[in-house]
Amino acid sequence: MSCGIILAAVLMFSDPSVAEAAAVAPVAADAPVSVAHEPLFADLVTRSGSLKVIVDGWIASGEAEAEGFLTGAAFTGFKTQAADLAARDLQGHLVLKERGTDNDLKCILRGISEDMPKKVAAVEAAPNAAERKVALEELAYLLNDNVEVITAPPKPAV
What we know:
Layout: H1 3-14, H2 16-23, H3 39-61, H4 73-99, H5 104-125, H6 129-151
Helix pairs in contact: 3-4, 3-6, 4-5, 5-6
């Protein structure tokens, strides 16, 4: 049994919204469908939007420049939530893959799940306040992208 199948099984059984999303009947491959209303994907939008608000607040207030920011409760809690969001994005990818969809969202969700930990690590690795601000802005952009790719109206096949 491959590691990918084991990972998919573990992730699928770890969150009931994944099972609900997987249970939705597949539609015709050429029909544009929005998944934004499905519980798993709506949850991704909510979580990502909430995390973006936090990052935007840090950028606006300059809080991320404070001594001890990276070891403080706010950032360590954020890291946990960002890791959870990345895992849920991967779940979304796996649900769409299981449905046999051939669309950009499936690939984008996987990319976001892989990029999220890298963006958080870039915030941690920034050697000064200016570079940390840039890293936070890139993280905010990724979180916003996560919302927009799910909520964008589907486009018909060309």
